[in-house]
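REVIEWER CHECKLIST
Item 1: Sequence provided? yes
Item 2: Single chain? yes
Item 3: Sequence as submitted:
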Amino acid sequence: ASLHVVAGHLYASGHIGKVHFFSWGFTWVPWFFMLSGFVLFSANSRRPTHENPFEYVARRSATIWPLYAISLVPALIISKRVAAFDTPHGVYLALQVLLVQSWVPWLTEHTLQMHCWFLSCMLVYWFCFKALYRCVARLSLHVTGLLMLTIFAFPWVIVVAIPALSQDLEWYTEHRFGERSTFVDIAVIFLKFHPLSYFHVFVLGMLLANFRLLLDAQSKVWYRYVMEIITPLSYTLLFVLFGIEAIQPWAFKLSARLSILLPMQAGILLGLAGLP
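Item 4: Structure as written out by the authors:
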């Protein structure tokens, strides 16, 4: 997943061959939000901590903020010395230091270390985690599975419905990086970077972790056979989709950000984790 993201950046900047497979690299970003929800839920299930949301955010932030803050210093120096880089406004820089750059669409594409936008999303998810954990941990196996299916289905409903409602399926291509003067610009930035755009993905990771724990308690042999095949099956489906341009969904640069690949990506995560 990480290598595919890197290849996607190189593909987008023209530093790698025009191989259609590489153009899907960005689609793994939601997967890492799902992975985070999965790991945090699993860890809290094993070793519960009694913290309020602010304490939890502070503890999690302590692992990433110092290095992030240090990285802004050379980035700021480079932006001042290299003509090709724009130095952010002082207010923008201050908000970025506080890791809120993805919360405000007008700010997001005018920051240093642009690729760190996801950390800004994680603050929101960490703040909500304890309350979400209490809710998810009470769910039964069937309710957990039903909520997972609902999250899986929602992006696909959009994929089917929007072509029926609009002729302009490529509306998002009007946006150019750094532009923020039109409704389309703000809408695209919101969908690409705002915490609310990926909140359901983080929750899905938590549901997936709860599903795994509840499934293990069932002690049914056929579950384990499913777990053996779900990862290779999911990888196969993704590779077919990534490799055959003719079968890509409409406006995949946007619809994939709405997480239409969640069923396959969740299968990979669940299969690799295995049952406890």
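Item 5: Key structural point noted by reviewer: The chain has a mean pLDDT of 85.
Item 6: Recommendation: ____
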